[in-house]
Amino acid sequence: MKNKHGQQVKAATPNRLDMSSFDVTLQQLNDLLTDESGFYSWPTKHFHEVYPRIYVGNAFVAMNVMRLKRIVYHGIPASDTDHFDLSVYFEEAADFVEKALAYKNGKGKVYVHCREGYSRSPTLVIAYLMLRQNMDVHTALAMVRQKREIGPNDGFLRQLCRLNQRLEAEGKFWNK
């Protein structure tokens, strides 16, 4: 198997998390992203519905003009590097997703994509779930990971950890 950076790895079986704790570490989030053997997986399809009416996928689907002919587009200039601050777009992306879902009297759909649908787009959807659905990072990440193989880079995971700390301090989680 390969890790999220495409390198061949074999890791020790990670300890699974105590999901009742809101104190989160980068390692705990990476443990949620791997299988029982510590391996990351690439997405098996071009897109997946990861939450009702929210789809995460790759650029292949986004380029299918016939499928997406009645689309409202919102671009975010993001690099998939550990040092890129994607968190400055969390609120903007969450607002867009929220408005898209409210379209047609709450029957709207949203397609969130990046090149592979593996790091940037799932990170933004996880942030949406935290900000608008009041989920902690464990719950949001596990929900998306259950529906699609994802692997946000460590920098994005750290940003989600910081968002988690902020939202916890503000008392925003419903599952506390």
UniProtKB/TrEMBL annotation:
Q: Name one GO molecular function term.
A: protein tyrosine/serine/threonine phosphatase activity
Q: Which reaction(s) does its UniProt entry say it catalyses?
A: O-phospho-L-seryl-[protein] + H2O = L-seryl-[protein] + phosphate; O-phospho-L-threonyl-[protein] + H2O = L-threonyl-[protein] + phosphate
> What are the GO cellular component annotations?
cytoplasm
Which residue positions are annotated as catalytic?
114 (phosphocysteine intermediate)
Superkingdom is Eukaryota
Which SUPFAM superfamilies does its entry note?
(Phosphotyrosine protein) phosphatases II (SSF52799)
Which PROSITE patterns does this entry report, sorted A to Z? TYR_PHOSPHATASE_1 (PS00383), TYR_PHOSPHATASE_2 (PS50056), TYR_PHOSPHATASE_DUAL (PS50054)
Keywords, A to Z, come to:
Hydrolase, Protein phosphatase
Pfam families (alphabetical): DSPc
Residues covered by the Tyrosine specific protein phosphatases domain: 94-148
Does the keyword field hold Metal-binding?
no
* Tyrosine-protein phosphatase domain: residues covered: 22-169
Name one process (GO BP) from the record.
negative regulation of MAPK cascade
UniProt cross-references to SMART domains, sorted A to Z: DSPc
The UniProt entry, under InterPro entries, shows: Atypical_DUSP_subfamA (IPR020405), Dual-sp_phosphatase_cat-dom (IPR000340), Prot-tyrosine_phosphatase-like (IPR029021), Tyr_Pase_AS (IPR016130), Tyr_Pase_dom (IPR000387), TYR_PHOSPHATASE_DUAL_dom (IPR020422)
Query: Which family would the database say this protein is a member of?
Result: Belongs to the protein-tyrosine phosphatase family. Non-receptor class dual specificity subfamily.
**PANTHER family linked:** AGAP008228-PA, DUAL SPECIFICITY PROTEIN PHOSPHATASE
Name listed for the protein in its UniProt record: Dual specificity protein phosphatase 3
- Organism per entry: Larimichthys crocea
